[in-house]
């Protein structure tokens, strides 16, 4: 039995107005789902590559990962000086997606991830709280937080850790907002979010922390892997143990 198979939080359905799509300012509906309490760790990803050789550092195909894939690992089965319980990073979207599928799960959608991430310790939506945004922004200014172990940040309303303060995370539709505005029921493609002036499109100008996440996601391609980018899994139904 793997730890992640039991360490999932139930997220009750709800709605919120996201950063994008402010022409209508219509709330996005999020159906109930489950999400990993912690990001996937080096130890867990090591178990995965042992069972899936094609995703090992030396064997993965270039179309599925760039040259930075698991760059800090010494070998296919050695994550070097990294801690076993630190989040695995330098993993491509393809590898993250495959890992979740092998667990009988999936990557969270961007809406699901943002819905969980807007909670602090007591409120489902803490985005208007100054101290909450200051905490997130202060993390963006810190370096090498990916070296920390999971579970060292605050436990949010849903019982989920490390949504902020540890690593950036892949979502299933990480760059969808920049591909088609129509898919987001908006009148424009929202490509203006790439530049600073695009922040005027934000549903709350104080929510610069979220704006940075959207801009970061929009700069990614599925084969990219960076040292501060990890992932966690989600599931539409309760996972089988």
UniProtKB/TrEMBL annotation:
This is Formylglycine-generating enzyme family protein. It holds the Pfam family FGE-sulfatase. InterPro entries: CTDL_fold, Sulfatase_Mod_Factor_Kinase, SUMF_dom, SUMF_sf. It comes from the Bacteria. Residues 26-234 form the Sulfatase-modifying factor enzyme-like domain.
